[in-house]
């Protein structure tokens, strides 16, 4: 290699050369620094000196086969330094050819240290799946664990207990001793639960003082009763928090699979119902859900039929929440949000009725109505000289339909004057990864029509680098649960900064949800996120109020000042 080129590479990257047998023939200073080996120790050594044992042998077999065939190989590799520590490199390996024989004569490798990026991703993925206070699995990871436990129970033909545990008297601890003491109590309860549960059982924290226990291989009610009595006894034992003795107890609701032969969400809901009965009957006890007395199936069926009538009777409507570029003050689009104008209850939010129908085909009919209505509204705004893109939430069941793309194309054709790029379909992470191959195919087919896609509630699901790479979405929306606490929670601030960094690294636009105050917006702008929505900008509003609201919208002075300062 020319000395000038070698000097440039040495300054920018970790560089090495190996012969055809894999012996190291050259390393630069950066290689020595990161590996901890001297140049003398490395020259002539086999490249396996850096093997970390973290990769399957097939990775290296494929790598050397491709290099020997004269192909360039690229990938991320974990190496082990001389002191035993691990480091990650983004590596490009290139075969060099003898100019006379035309055969491969050696290999050069150009690497870049990505250890910090890997550590950041690992931290982000851990935080997404775990409760920061207790270290237990959170709601997102619990859902995965429960689905896996159900499948294992089916395969092994064994019983599974799903338990909802709520502390009795926890509010009094918070009120009497302060939230810091309450947090310490939750940490202690978490330790005790992990200590008394059997190997193979799982425990997670939903929120507040609510925990979920997943107890596998239940050999009968005596086994279950023994485990739960140990749990109750462990929780009821007094503990000392900040020098003060504190005592609480627990109420536990239990449902059994396959007796309660339902999906994970329903099992949790049934356990929750049983937990409330345990509280009503005296606390410090457990109560078993009675499937035979459950009336929820009937009630859900009634709700589905009532909502079906509401769709046909024109009782559903859309509200629109603005998306604003906080730096420029421009309104860049709207999110369409479903409402039910109930003849008795008034305007009902979707959280009160959509979960009851999301596993039925009615959710598809409602979703298509929402898309059709949003396109019609954009058409009306265009006639008034206003061109605002609109995003619409899409349920999992849409992607289970083989004719999803065809039906979407028909809806677009009904509103041909609206450019497909003006429609943005939002999918949540959990929907995206349920069948990632199928979802990716759907997204790509829809994008060929011109439709855009956003990954909604980012940070509450898997947040895997591989999923981000595979999912062809243009936008990532940071979940409001992180944004709302960035003003006083350093963990949520760090998490939000990391999500914004990931979005930028993958070339995705990023939108923050849950901006409640001007200060939230200032922080987000500082972190590199300029587009946001939330109650601090505007609450969702009926379509007829949108144009007037946009005319009257004034960018907050603090945002203008920060934008000028950045410029």
Structure overview:
- The chain is of the alpha/beta class and 567 residues long.
- The chain folds into 3 domains: 3-113, PAS domain (Beta-Lactamase), CATH 3.30.450; 122-294, Reverse transcriptase/Diguanylate cyclase domain (Alpha-Beta Plaits, 2-Layer Sandwich); 316-562, Alpha-Beta Barrel (TIM Barrel).
- Helices cover 44% and strands 25% of the residues.
- It is built from 22 helices and 22 strands.
- The longest helix has 22 residues, at 362-383.
- The model has no long low-confidence stretch (mean pLDDT 87).
Major sheet attributes: 8 strands, mixed, barrel
Q: Could you give the distance between the termini? A: 43 Å
Strand content: 15-25%
User: Radius of gyration from the CA trace?
Assistant: 28 Å
Structural class: alpha/beta
List keywords for this structure.
single chain, 567 residues, Beta-Lactamase, Alpha-Beta Plaits, TIM Barrel, eight-stranded mixed barrel, five-stranded antiparallel β-sheet, 22 strands, 25% strand, globular
Provide a concise account of the structure shown.
With 567 residues, this protein is of the alpha/beta class. The protein is 44% helix and 25% strand.
Layout of helices and strands:
Blueprint lengths: L2 H10 L1 E6 L4 E4 L1 H7 L3 H4 L14 H12 L4 E8 L5 E12 L6 E10 L1 H15 L9 H18 L2 E10 L1 H8 L1 H18 L5 E6 L2 E9 L2 H16 L2 E3 L2 E3 L2 E9 L6 H17 L4 E4 L7 H17 L3 E10 L4 E13 L3 E3 L13 H22 L6 E4 L2 H4 L4 H11 L8 E6 H6 L1 H13 L3 E7 L6 H6 L4 E4 L1 H4 L6 H16 L3 E4 L5 H10 L3 E2 L8 E2 L3 H7 L4 H10 L1
Parallel strand pairs: 11-12, 14-16, 16-17, 17-18, 18-19, 19-20, 20-21
Antiparallel strand pairs: 1-2, 1-5, 3-4, 4-5, 6-8, 6-11, 7-8, 9-10, 13-14, 13-21, 13-22, 14-15
């Amino acid at each position: 290699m020319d000395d000038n080129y070698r000097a440039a590479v040495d300054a920018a990257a970790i560089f090495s050369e190996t012969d055809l047998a894999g012996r190291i023939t050259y390393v630069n200073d950066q290689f020595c620094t990161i590996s901890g080996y001297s140049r003398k120790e490395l020259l002539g050594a086999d490249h396996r000196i850096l093997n970390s044992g973290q990769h399957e042998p097939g990775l290296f077999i494929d790598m050397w086969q491709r290099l020997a065939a004269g192909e360039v190989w690229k990938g991320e590799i974990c190496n082990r330094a001389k002191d035993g520590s691990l480091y990650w490199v983004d590596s490009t390996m290139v075969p060099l050819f003898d100019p006379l024989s035309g055969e491969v004569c050696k290999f050069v490798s150009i690497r870049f240290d990505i250890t910090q990026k890997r550590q950041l991703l690992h931290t982000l993925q851990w935080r997404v799946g775990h409760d920061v206070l207790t270290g237990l699995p959170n709601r997102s990871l619990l859902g995965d664990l429960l689905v896996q436990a159900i499948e294992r129970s089916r395969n092994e033909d064994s019983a599974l207990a799903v338990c909802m545990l709520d502390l009795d008297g926890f509010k009094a601890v918070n009120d009497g001793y302060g939230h810091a003491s309450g947090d310490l109590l939750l940490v202690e309860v978490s330790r005790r639960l992990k200590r008394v549960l059997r190997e193979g059982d799982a425990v997670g924290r939903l929120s507040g003082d609510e925990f979920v226990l997943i107890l596998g291989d239940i050999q009968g009610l005596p086994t279950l009763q023994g485990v739960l009595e140990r749990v109750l006894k462990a929780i009821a034992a007094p503990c000392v928090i900040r020098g003060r003795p504190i005592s609480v107890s627990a109420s536990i609701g239990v449902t059994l699979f396959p007796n309660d032969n339902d999906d994970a969400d329903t099992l949790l809901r049934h356990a929750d119902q049983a937990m409330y009965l345990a509280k009503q009957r005296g606390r410090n006890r457990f109560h078993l859900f009675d499937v035979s007395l459950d009336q929820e199936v009937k009630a859900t069926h009634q709700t589905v039929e009532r909502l079906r009538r509401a769709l046909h009777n024109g009782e559903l409507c859309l509200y629109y929440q603005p998306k604003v570029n906080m730096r420029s003050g421009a309104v860049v689009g709207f999110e369409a949000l479903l409402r039910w104008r109930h003849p008795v209850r008034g305007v009902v939010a979707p959280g009160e009725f959509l979960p009851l129908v999301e596993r039925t085909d009615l959710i598809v009919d409602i979703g298509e109505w929402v898309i059709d209505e949003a396109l019609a509204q954009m058409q009306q705004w265009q006639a008034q000289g206003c061109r605002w893109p609109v995003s619409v939430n899409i349920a999992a069941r849409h992607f289970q339909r083989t004719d999803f793309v065809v039906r979407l194309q028909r809806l677009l054709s009904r509103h041909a004057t609206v450019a497909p790029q003006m429609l943005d379909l939002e999918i949540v992470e959990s929907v995206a990864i349920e069948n990632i191959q199928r979802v990716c195919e759907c997204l790509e087919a829809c994008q060929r029509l011109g439709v855009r896609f956003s990954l909604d509630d980012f940070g509450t699901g898997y947040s895997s680098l591989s999923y981000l790479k595979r999912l062809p979405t243009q936008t990532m929306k940071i979940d409001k649960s992180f944004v709302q606490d960035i003003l006083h929670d350093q963990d949520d601030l760090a998490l939000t900064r990391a999500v914004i960094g990931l979005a930028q690294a993958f070339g995705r636009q990023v939108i923050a949800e849950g901006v409640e105050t001007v200060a939230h917006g200032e922080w987000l702008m500082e972190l590199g996120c300029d587009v946001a929505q939330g109650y601090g900008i505007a609450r969702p509003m009926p379509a007829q109020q949108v144009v007037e609201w946009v005319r009257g919208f004034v960018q907050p002075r603090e945002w203008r000042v920060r934008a000028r300062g950045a410029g």
